[in-house]
Design a protein that fits this description.
The protein has about 120 residues and is α+β, with helices and mostly antiparallel strands. The protein has two helices and five strands; from the N terminus they run αβββββα.
């Protein structure tokens, strides 16, 4: 029964992540930013962007870790970002699908886990 519950939580989390991302991108402000570099935080490397919003110069990391050697933008490049003024912790790169991929993966894994557990229990 634990696997059914855990699978359901994964499915819920996946849908939550996708909906949260859709809402954030719709409500966010689309701006041009410069890739300022990369920063290490808790064992992951995040891109850092510098941009102006309402006259204020801001420098914020991206919301998804990235490998600097495989990142498609170079330091100094202009990148379109999505900035949510109510969340000044990070920004999203316009056109990035990483959050959606994480959400879809959580939904698929959770559904497989729950359905396999239910089948093993003899429910269907």
């Amino acid at each position: 029964m634990f696997y059914v519950i855990f699978g359901g939580i994964l499915v819920f989390a996946g849908f939550y992540l996708i909906i949260k991302c859709l809402v954030s991108r719709k409500k966010g402000v689309h701006l041009d930013a410069a890739l300022a570099g990369f920063q290490d935080e808790k064992g992951a490397t995040y891109p850092v962007f510098t941009f102006r919003y309402e006259g204020e110069e801001l420098t914020l990391p991206g919301g998804v870790p990235a490998n600097p050697s495989k990142f498609k933008h170079q330091v100094g490049d202009n990148v379109r970002i999505i900035f949510n003024p109510s969340n000044r912790k990070f920004v999203d790169i316009e056109g990035s699908a990483t959050e959606y991929i994480y959400g879809i993966a959580a939904i698929v894994c959770g559904a497989i886990l729950a359905l396999a557990s239910l089948k093993k229990m003899g429910v269907f």
